[in-house]
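Title: Prediction job returns without error message
Component: structure pipeline
Severity: low
Priority: P3
Assignee: unassigned

Description:
Job completed but the reporter wants confirmation the result is attached to the right record. Sequence as submitted:
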Amino acid sequence: MLNKIKQSLFRTDLEKWTIKLSNHAKSSVYIYGAGQLGIEVAIICEEMSIEVKGFFDRATHGNTLWPNIPVLQVDALSQFENEVVLVTVVKDRDVLLKQLRKDYGSLVFI
């Protein structure tokens, strides 16, 4: 039951993210956070025909996640421009978003 509630909340957030994505004319994203929430968001993105190009994560890199999506180091964000990154970190999310936007201003963090 809890999983269904979580999935419903994720879908609601993802629907909001999708609206923001359409404002940026993007049908593909990166996901910041390769944990369980990030994976669930990737699954929902696929269901909504949003391509997940990769994950950024502090702890895991050089691996691939479902389905063969690369996991990159957070420092690799500096190599990208004009990409949308869905931030799936819950703890101190607002602080993290502020820092990411400051450090990587050429990316759109949602």
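Comment from assignee: result matches the submitted record. The longest strand covers residues 51-56.
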